[in-house]
């Protein structure tokens, strides 16, 4: 069944031609199971779930200085919602104010290996640009200060120099090569969707997401959370700042286990959408009639937020994505619970 | 042939331009048509700018205050279409009309009647486009990129959108043909191609780009039209089509389009910096080769707009490497402008200030462009405010600043009077400050995770959005100062300009009196030395 969901696109034939061969025979992705999952894990610490969650929360706090405050808030609220409790207390409001005063100016390092590498590449190119800017703008500014008529200078007559042209053609080429190598390496890793631990199909609708945990019989829609829906209308009289995670909260989150390689298959039911969660460094278009694939492996628990990133009509700004990464045991429990829920619904529907 | 042209025009001179509306509606004179292009683009600049202010007002704080999401999307779409096709492109065509014949020593454009037509199509095209604002379902709201299937959800406006794009394309193609024919056939006898001024060169290359890609755009929108009304399925997966194919076709037009909007700006700056540095342009020939190289590369990088569409890895790598290559010729241009200023004797009149603003801020846009070229990082930047910041840096302090520089530079030649230098400089400084206040914070917003084209946003984006909105309103109102300066200059409030206008500028346009007479170079001028045009 999953074989038929080949990633397709305008170059799907080309893709088949050029895809790197898998190391062995290509096996269909394994169904998610806790045993399988454990065998893939590295450094599985023999500590209780509770201790892990406390440690996770502590780390969130420690990172708060360098990371965005709102993510810490998000993580705390995520724990509350795990037990399906809406966070409406004064606690949430307090942090909402802090979040509103936040001045995030850079790409998040994120919570996957590849999001960290993406951040590194971004910073590498950024610092190269700064270095070039210092040289180029330095020369310009020096010239602006010293080579002005009011200083009584006599203009020079030179108008060309082959040597100079060759130098400032060659040096950028070298710099670009230095940039290109790690970029290409990372690109190859980003596209390596082989051997996932589980596969989730995300389908874009105007204007919500539908998630289907492949082979688990668990599927649900994920739409903008009620408090945001009420506050977003023109003249609602509700201050967005009073709503927790305004426009970045959903009714049903995409729950995934920590440290598992999650393959995401993306498609759409109507127009183009794009699935973007900055902390996972994933952005991929959901295209009607085609299936795109991407993957992530979150190394931290927490709640990570994103939005649809491809203009999809009137309510494009109102179809957030919320991913909740939890410990594997907790995930198993969650999945069992969801299956029960689905079974109940099926039973009710059958009557 | 030269004397025949001269005779024909000498005959004209007795009665000069027609009086009243006939002069403009029936215009065949390159200067009149140039003026109409420039004024039309200024009008569109304010129309598109007004829409930008609606967008920025709505984005001032979180929550919806003024407009509904559907109208917001109409504003972003119309703002882009009007600014790209109505403001920037016609403004450069206006400059081409005015200046190319005067720079190459030709009496007029080669095809004056087609010239008239290519201008008068534009008000019709934009009239059609603007009328969609009042139609059921409103104006197009699918972004200027018109991606299907979303664009097929457009209401009654849909065929009007397609037809107006067809008309804009028609106008551009005819304008481009005119430019090419003029430059190839009507240069002064001794002006070889490599002696041509840089503005003429960049326009020649731009014109070829236009002819190459405008038909592609016309084809893409025609396929949309038949998908909508005639049962085809070019872009509909249900009928065997591919929505992503539209993106490939669109960006095959769209990326050269970017250079259509910036190459003439390179030309303008290459004219102005030497004048105010009192030193010839450094590396004239390598500038020509760099511009040609950019034009070639622009055809093989289109899919860098599509890194998230699910291309195969090899495709992504190819388009990443090809895009990075563009940094090389672009770098050469920036270095050559710097070398032109080096050991010159600079003064800082308004045209020079705008050119320097261009040089610094376009380079910033170039840096963010290089960052965007890096495919793995682009996964994060794509469709975020980082992209918005990038293309506004290359278009506003890039193309628009170059246009402002050109206007101030040649205004005394056009009107015979100087503009108010003090107000011009004030206009520059206000524009520079506000343009940075507007667009610099957008880099931060994008990196922090704000997608583009959203009418409302989460509260952690509030502060930078508020700053950007203040900057936008400041920038918008600063441009009224330009209109005032223009008005004053046209009303002959400034000092009388000499033929040279500036301190020994190079080029044939400075050998004719100011204001430039209705007919110039009825007999071709003698080009004495190559150096004069480098």
Question: Which sequence of SSEs, written as H and E, runs from N to C of chain B?
Answer: HHHHHHHHHHHHHHHH
Which chain pair shows the most residues in contact? A-B, 112 and 102 residues
Runs of chain A with pLDDT <50, length 5+?
1-101, 347-351
Shape of chain A: elongated
Mean pLDDT of chain B: 93
Number of helices of chain B: 16
Query: Radius of gyration of chain A, rounded?
Result: 25 Å
Q: DSSP strand (E) fraction of chain B?
A: under 5%
Radius of gyration of chain B: 23 Å
Chain-wise SSE layout:
The complex is a heterodimer of chains A (351) and B (534).
Chain A: H1 12-18, H2 34-40, H3 49-63, H4 69-82, H5 90-100, H6 113-146, H7 162-190, E1 198-205, E2 208-213, E3 218-222, H8 226-232, E4 254-257, E5 262-268, E6 273-277, E7 282-286, E8 292-296, E9 302-308, E10 320-326, H9 328-350
Parallel strand pairs in A: 1-5, 4-10
Antiparallel strand pairs in A: 1-2, 2-3, 5-8, 6-7, 6-9, 9-10
Helix pairs in contact in A: 3-4, 4-5, 6-7
Chain B: H1 2-13, H2 21-25, H3 30-58, H4 69-104, H5 112-131, H6 157-185, H7 198-229, H8 243-277, H9 284-297, H10 313-325, H11 327-341, H12 350-373, H13 375-381, H14 385-415, H15 421-448, H16 462-490
Helix pairs in contact in B: 3-4, 3-5, 3-16, 4-5, 4-6, 4-8, 4-14, 5-6, 6-7, 7-8, 7-9, 8-11, 8-12, 8-14, 9-11, 11-12, 12-14, 12-15, 14-15, 15-16
Report what the structure shows.
The complex is a heterodimer of chains A (351) and B (534). In chain A, helix 3 runs antiparallel to helix 4, helix 4 packs antiparallel against helix 5 and helix 6 packs antiparallel against helix 7. Chain A is 42% helix and 17% strand. In chain A, strand 1 and strand 2 form a beta hairpin. Chain A is elongated, with a radius of gyration of 25 Å. The N terminus and C terminus of chain A are likely disordered. With 351 residues, chain A is α+β, with helices and mostly antiparallel strands. Chain B has 534 residues and is mostly helical. In chain B, 67% of the residues lie in helices and 0% in strands. Chain B contains 16 helices and no strands. The N terminus and C terminus of chain B are likely disordered. At the A-B interface, helix 1, helix 5, helix 6, helix 7 and strand 7 of A face helix 4, helix 8, helix 9, helix 10 and helix 11 of B.
């Amino acid at each position: 069944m999953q074989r038929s969901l080949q990633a397709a696109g305008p170059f799907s034939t080309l893709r088949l031609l050029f895809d790197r061969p898998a190391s062995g025979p290509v096996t269909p992705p394994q169904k998610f199971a806790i045993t399988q999952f454990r065998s893939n894990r590295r450094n599985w610490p023999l500590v209780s779930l509770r201790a892990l969650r406390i440690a996770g929360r502590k780390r969130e706090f420690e990172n708060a200085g360098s990371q965005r405050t709102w993510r810490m808030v998000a993580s705390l609220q995520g724990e509350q919602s795990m037990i399906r409790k809406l966070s409406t207390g004064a606690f949430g409001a307090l942090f909402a104010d802090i979040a509103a005063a936040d001045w995030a100016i850079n790409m998040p390092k994120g919570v996957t290996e590849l999001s960290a590498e993406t951040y590194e590449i971004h910073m590498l190119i950024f610092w190269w640009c700064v270095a070039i800017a210092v040289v180029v703008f330095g020369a310009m500014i020096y010239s602006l200060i010293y080579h002005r008529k009011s200083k009584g200078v006599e203009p020079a007559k030179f108008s060309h120099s082959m040597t100079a042209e060759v130098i400032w053609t060659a040096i950028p080429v070298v710099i670009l090569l230095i940039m290109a190598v790690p970029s290409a390496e990372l690109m190859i890793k980003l596209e390596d969707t082989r051997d996932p631990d589980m596969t989730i199909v995300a389908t874009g609708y105007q204007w919500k997401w539908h998630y289907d945990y492949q082979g688990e019989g668990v599927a649900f829609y994920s739409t903008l959370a009620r408090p945001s829906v009420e506050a977003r209308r023109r003249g609602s009289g509700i201050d967005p700042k009073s709503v927790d995670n305004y426009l970045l909260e959903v009714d049903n989150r995409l729950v995934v286990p920590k440290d598992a390689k999650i393959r995401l298959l993306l498609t759409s039911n109507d127009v183009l959408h794009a699935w973007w969660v900055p902390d996972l460094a994933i952005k991929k278009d959901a295209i009607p009639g085609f299936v795109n694939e991407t993957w992530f492996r979150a190394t931290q628990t927490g709640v990570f937020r994103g939005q649809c990133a491809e203009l999809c009509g009137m309510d494009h700004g109102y179809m957030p994505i919320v991913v909740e990464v939890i410990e594997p045991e907790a995930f198993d429990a969650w999945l069992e619970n969801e299956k029960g829920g689905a079974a109940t619904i099926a039973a009710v529907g059958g009557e | 042939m030269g004397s025949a042209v001269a005779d024909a025009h000498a005959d004209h001179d007795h009665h000069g331009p027609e009086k009243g509306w006939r002069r403009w509606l029936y215009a065949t004179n390159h200067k009149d048509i140039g003026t109409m292009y420039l004024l039309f683009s200024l009008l569109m600049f304010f129309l598109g700018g007004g829409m930008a202010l609606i967008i920025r007002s709505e984005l001032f704080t979180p929550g919806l205050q003024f407009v509904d999401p559907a109208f917001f999307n109409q504003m972003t779409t119309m703002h882009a279409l009007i600014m790209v096709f109505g403001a920037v492109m016609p403004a450069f065509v206006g400059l081409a009309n005015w200046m190319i014949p005067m720079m190459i020593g030709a009496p007029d454009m080669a095809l004056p009647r087609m010239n008239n037509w290519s201008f008068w199509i534009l008000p019709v095209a934009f009239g059609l486009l603007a009328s969609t604002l009042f139609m059921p379902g409103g104006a197009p709201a699918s972004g200027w990129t018109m991606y299907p299937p979303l664009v097929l959800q457009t209401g009654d406006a849909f065929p009007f959108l397609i037809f107006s794009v067809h008309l804009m394309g028609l106008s551009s193609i005819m304008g481009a043909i005119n430019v090419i024919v003029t430059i190839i056939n009507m240069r002064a006898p001794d002006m070889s191609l490599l002696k041509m001024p840089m503005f003429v060169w960049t326009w020649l290359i731009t014109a070829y780009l236009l002819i190459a890609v405008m038909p592609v755009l016309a084809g893409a929108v025609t396929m949309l039209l038949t998908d909508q009304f005639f049962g085809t399925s070019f872009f509909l997966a249900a009928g065997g089509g591919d929505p992503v194919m539209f993106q490939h076709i669109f960006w095959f037009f769209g990326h050269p389009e970017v250079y259509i909007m910036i190459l003439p700006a390179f030309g303008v700056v290459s004219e102005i910096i030497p004048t105010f540095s009192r030193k010839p342009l450094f590396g004239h020939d390598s500038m020509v080769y760099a511009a040609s190289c950019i034009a070639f590369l622009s055809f093989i990088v289109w899919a860098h707009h599509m890194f998230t569409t699910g291309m195969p890895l090899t495709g992504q790598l190819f388009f990443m490497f090809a895009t990075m290559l563009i940094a090389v010729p672009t770098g050469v241009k920036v270095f050559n402008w710097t070398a032109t200023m080096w050991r010159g004797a600079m003064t800082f009149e308004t045209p020079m200030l705008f050119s320097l603003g261009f040089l610094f801020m376009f380079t910033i846009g170039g840096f963010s462009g290089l960052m965007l070229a890096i495919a793995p990082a682009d996964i994060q930047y794509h469709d975020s405010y980082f992209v918005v910041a990038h293309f506004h840096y290359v278009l506003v302090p890039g193309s628009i600043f170059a246009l402002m520089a050109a206007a101030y530079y040649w205004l005394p030649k056009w009107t015979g009077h100087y503009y108010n230098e003090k107000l011009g400089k004030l206009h520059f400084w206000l524009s520079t400050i506000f343009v940075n206040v507007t667009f610099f914070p957008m880099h931060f917003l994008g990196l922090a995770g704000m997608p583009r084209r959203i009418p409302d946003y989460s509260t952690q984006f509030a502060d930078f959005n508020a700053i950007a909105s203040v900057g936008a309103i400041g920038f918008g109102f600063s441009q009224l100062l330009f209109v005032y300066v223009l008005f004053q200059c046209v009303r002959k409030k400034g000092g009388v300009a000499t033929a040279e206008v500036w301190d020994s500028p190079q080029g044939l346009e400075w050998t004719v009196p100011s204001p430039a007479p209705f007919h110039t170079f009825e007999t071709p001028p003698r080009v004495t030395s190559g150096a004069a045009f480098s």
